[in-house]
Design brief:
mainly beta; six-stranded antiparallel beta sheet; globular
Length: 114
Amino acid sequence: MTRPTPIHYRGFWDVPRIFLVAHRDRLFLFDCPFSEELDDYPDVYAVFELPHGIDNALPKDWTTLADSAVARLGTVSVADVAFDPTRRKAIDVSVLDRFRTSDPTSRNRLVGAA
């Protein structure tokens, strides 16, 4: 892992199934809820940008966090997220390089989607 960045997560099944990561003054939500249709977890995270300050008053039920998103950025394969050895403390933030993070007009467009 070349660029480890701390995460905060809830829900774990092999890997965190919902987690937050701060990067470049933005807050990202990676969400991979259980699918009744698949009877399993999907192999992709939906990635959202959350508004500033929401991490100061997080709800107990994180499954509602995506409803507060300022943008849905796209998806990322769970396999493409490099976790620390414990899979609970950090990710390699380079996974966010897939998203255009500097151009606000492109926040809803995914670059290099899995």
